[in-house]
Amino acid sequence: MVPRQVPRWSAWIFQATPAWRRTTCALGASVGQQRWPRFPWRMCRPLAFRGCCSTVPRVPGVMLTSERYPVQRLPFSVVSEEDLAAFERIIPGRVITDPEELEVANVDWLKSVRGCSKVLLRPRTTEEVSCILRHCHQRNLAVNPQGGNTGLVGGSVPVFDEIILSTALMNQVISFHDVSGILVCQAGCVLEQLNHYVQERGFIMPLDLGAKGSCHIGGNVATNAGGMRFLRYGSLRGTVLGLEVVLADGTVLDCLTSLRKDNTGYDLKQLFIGSEGTLGVITAVSILCPPRPNAVNVAFLGCPGFAEVLQVFSTCKGMLGEILSAFEFMDAECMQLVMQHLHLTRPVRESPFYILVETSGSSADHDAEKLDGFLEQALGSGLVTDGTVGTDQNKVQALWALRERITEALSHDGYVFKYDISLPVERFYDLVIELRARLGPCTKHVVGYGHLGDGNLHLNVTAEAFSAALLAALEPYVYTWTATQQGSVSAEHGLGFKKKDVLGYSKPPTAMQLMWQLKALLDPRGLLNPYKTLPAHA
Ligand SMILES: O=C(O)CC[C@@H](O)C(=O)O
Ligand SMILES: [Zn+2]
């Protein structure tokens, strides 16, 4: 297996560490200090190398996953000194057993699940990944592929002692075609850095997430991440043109085509998009980048009721047409949380609901005219009670921060129960109202926000601490309710560890059966990201 060559860009390496951006807020508030906060990583005692989770020191506040959830370790081998030596021969100096570094990689961003892996591997090339997986396959060692570790469903950290296979050093651009806008890069490139890279060449990445400063493109593809540009550019299933994937036994599957059209046989890459590392490890991605818009405007609006929010969406689609690039929604509780925890300033008068409308087009004058027309109509008809528009980059970013940083604000509010569901827009907010009544005072906040333009609600419930009673009041209620609306129990975050058992609410038994068969075909020993995505097969 030959490692993919990166001759033209070999000197140009992305930093794997998050690039925190600082922005000056045109609204006078201090925003965007940290796009996605660092963990307050804690020191812990050295880990005993051999053995199971019981040998790992407890970190206050982050329970071992196996203590909180009923899950049994599968009979995989335990990493031995010989395995470590074999890894060291494959990737010299990049076999990590340092407890502090392991601690970072074992805990998810939410600090809600925690594995007890004893080894973290940092390959640089596809060939290295292939050699590692071949060894793991021979030795029956389970592997947890990890990108930026920004996932919200516990998919990116081990459940027990799975080997963590990090893509952090696989961070090179392989090629960029400045006529077609096709980018080919390694899986560990950080999304925001890719966006800067293609922006300098007149394009943008087709996806944008709050976690952009840390998340890896490979992880984005593995989870089929949605995000803020979905409304305009659609799913990664459409914009990813090709993938290179290493299969469980180490075989390299080279489907890294850059063709827009290719109807030769089954589209195998689609199997790996959204498979959360359970079918193979994505090592390189070919992706179609849309042209960089010349003008980006953001309107932030206050709305008196949810019926009005829906009417604004209709009006917006009709009047803005092809320049509409985002339609995001947040309720008053979200606004309160970003003000309280992040000290951001509300840019419009207080309202029950807020909408962020973004336009992206080729002519600033034309777009401004269209947006003005829409705002006049929305304000004049009372659909919107107040609004502000950002046309310069600083104000655009400041307005986006109010929406993008809700997750971060929620993380300061206590334990967060997260639901990421797809619904018909007419029912978008009903569940939030129902839950407030159902849960009563045992919660701190029940909030609703999300990508209304895509029918994707982020329903989050915060409480002082994790509570089994609260969980029982939420689940399966939320999932049953969603299924009754023919919705999806995971719109864009995937199923990971936390949601794997609810797959049946959104997929029929025949589909699940086929998924188990595919898993057995591609990973017969079940070594890749075990305990994730699919429920245990009875
Ligand atoms: O934290 C969440 O529930 C949502 C995170 C992300 O998908 C967003 O849209 O901000
Ligand atoms: Zn989202």
Describe the fold and architecture.
With 538 residues, this protein is an alpha+beta fold. Among the domains are: 116 residues, Uridine Diphospho-n-acetylenolpyruvylglucosamine Reductase, domain 3 (2-Layer Sandwich), CATH 3.30.465.10; 113 residues, Alpha-Beta Plaits; 94 residues, Alpha-Beta Plaits (2-Layer Sandwich), CATH 3.30.70. The protein has 18 helices and 16 strands. The strands form three sheets. The protein has a seven-stranded antiparallel β-sheet with strand order 13-10-12-11-15-16-14, with helices on both faces. Strands 5-6-9-7-8 form a five-stranded antiparallel β-sheet. The protein has a four-stranded mixed β-sheet with strand order 1-2-4-3. Helix 2 runs antiparallel to helix 4 and helix 10 runs antiparallel to helix 12. The longest helix is centred in the last third of the chain and has 17 residues. The protein starts with 64 loop residues before the first helix and ends in a 16-residue tail after the last helix. The structure holds (2R)-2-hydroxypentanedioic acid (2HG) and zinc ion (ZN). Belongs to the FAD-binding oxidoreductase/transferase type 4 family. GO terms for molecular function: (R)-2-hydroxyglutarate dehydrogenase activity; FAD binding; metal ion binding. Its EC number is 1.1.99.39.
Task: Explain the layout of strands and helices.
Elements: H1 65-68, H2 81-90, E1 95-96, H3 99-106, E2 120-121, H4 126-139, E3 143-146, E4 163-166, E5 173-177, E6 182-186, H5 191-199, H6 217-222, H7 230-233, H8 236-239, E7 240-246, E8 252-255, H9 269-272, E9 281-288, E10 295-303, H10 306-320, E11 324-331, H11 332-342, E12 353-361, H12 364-380, E13 386-390, H13 393-404, H14 406-411, E14 415-422, H15 430-439, E15 445-451, E16 456-463, H16 468-474, H17 477-484, H18 509-522
The structure holds (2R)-2-hydroxypentanedioic acid and zinc ion.
